[in-house]
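pinning this so it doesn't scroll away 📌
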Amino acid sequence: MNHAKELIGILKTERDEKLPRVTLYLPTHRREPDNKKDPIVFKNLMKKAEELMAKNYEKGAYQEVLKRLEALQKDTLFWNHSTEGLGVLAVGTECYPYRLLTPVPEDVVVGETFHILPLLEHGEAGAEMLLVDLAKDRFRLFSVGPYHVRELEQDEIKTHFNELFEDLDSESNVNTGSYAGTSGAFHGHRAKPEEVRKDREKYFRYLDASLSRFNKDRLPVILAGTTENVAAFREWAKGDFYAKEALTQPLESVTEDQVQQLVQKRLQEEKGELKRRREARLVAAKQEHAISLDLRDIQQKAQEGRVAELFVNTRRMDPNRRMLDAAVAQLILTGIPVHAVDYEDGILDTPTFAVLR
């Protein structure tokens, strides 16, 4: 997910300007034995941060932040649920860890401003999708990405038909059984065809409406299930976030690799489309001379409310990282979109490119 909204709240919080802002990034791992090394790597990054703070700050200014980082490093439960990457923002008594769904290079930054550009880069829309495993009377919900398939625990959506509706036809000769370890689920596989269809329609319409409320970030949703169930769901669904691709068999009958291959294909298509839309905006801004390339000028125009969005080219990072970090924070605070992009020369030849209003 994109972290910009959460970052606004963190950046708005007033704090002592004398306190150092600590930013740590590292790749992490979901499975043993690799994930056992993650807290050790984090501890080494903490030591680097402490060395940097000792050079530039009084010890009293960074004792509290070290305590918070040490507590996180010793939190075994936290490290047992790692993803592909981790970003940590810490200042004073506050510590904000961000699990990332793509690997991020190790980095340590200490200064007056958080280094949040990697959070934007690795939290781009498209790094995560949802997958709905459908049966005619129950469903399971998964978070899926290029590196993971994880079932979600949630209580917003009823997972079984009989949790919602009690008005089943008494003559439909209903059986009970189990799906994926859940007992007492309504099957209805010996009900009259028309009654089965009505029950399925009722449940699928409920799922579609519930997913629309649950999916606040409008993540793409992949459907999985029998060809019949997927087709029936599409017939009644109104949400505009369902992916064209689907797994036309129950999830339990496919491998994790098959799921990830489908996800990677979908994400590549989405990233390609996102890149084309952004390039079109860049070209249009150049043609209209509605651009600014100088970081100081961009900051000034942002204060005047004239910046529509900022592109930061990770291939040509501005050598003055502190100024760039301050500019990125300033724009995010004012609600201006900031995009971390990886563009070849000819598309974006400068470290920063602001599209003006």
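📌 and the second one:
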Amino acid sequence: YAAELCRQRGLHVELQQDFVGDVENINVIARPVSERPSMELLLQTHLDTVEPGPFALWTQTECNPFDATIVDGKIYGLGTADVKLDYLCKLEALTSFAADTKWKLPPVLVGTYGEESGMQGALRLIRKNKISAKMALIGEPSDLRLIGGAKGFASVEIRVPFTAEEIAYRQEHNLRESTSTQSKLFIGKAAHSSMPHLGESAVTKMLEYLEQMPDSVTLMEIDGGVNYNSVPSHALLEIDVVSNTTKPIVAKILQINVAVKSLDKEFQHYADKDFFPSQPTLNIGLIRTFEDHVLIAGSCRIPPSITNETYESWMSKLRVVCEGMGAQFRVTDYKKPFRTNDNS
């Protein structure tokens, strides 16, 4: 669709195809000239979005996040602000000059895939040498401010194992005709992990509830969020309060949460005035129950003022806590923060 929009406006389009698993992904590369110049001005926008979450919460679009709807002069729909409208604005601007042949630095408009899950499209664009960018203008929500930098981020996975006793108890429990389990649903407010203050984490509410439970409860099911990169709007907890398993996984999960909250408190001492929120942030975006472990996934946002040594020390603190209880800790992706000079 994006490629056809560009062609209709007289641009020359190249598609860079890739597969992530069995899912086809495409970078859309559009130029006002047919030949690739030796130097270009890159106008880049990512065309992927975070997961829409529960459709019922999309009240302005009649519960369809994919149906862009204008209400009181505002467009509601998945990805309108982050950042499909940016792509359309750049396309319209480029169209106005498409016939110009006197470019000092010809522009190239690129719509990439996979930004929300590790910037796979942008990385593939660079690694396959598809552009000749000397300068770049990257679209992200910024209240229309020009920002010469970006936060880095780390994607983190923690796998907390059940004990053999817990695994056996959970398997036996599922075969019973009646059980002593209790279930509870937690409701929050979804937001992007880069702006966690705009959301309300249902996973955080669930963990705070677990803190009030006896240490002896057995975890049957814990589930929340849709991916590491967003604030969870829903979470579900099922526990057995009359079991008597030893070294329950609940205590391990809560200990990890204590470490996360301790880091979050430490983050308040590191502010970068060029960003909002100005401090680093740490968000638990996903929690899932598997047969032999619980997966906890989240992301850490790091302003450019944070040194790599400081970042490494934070990750080391989490790793020590996790490995001390037999859990696996892994940074699955890391992008360094950066800041350019105003006159670069």
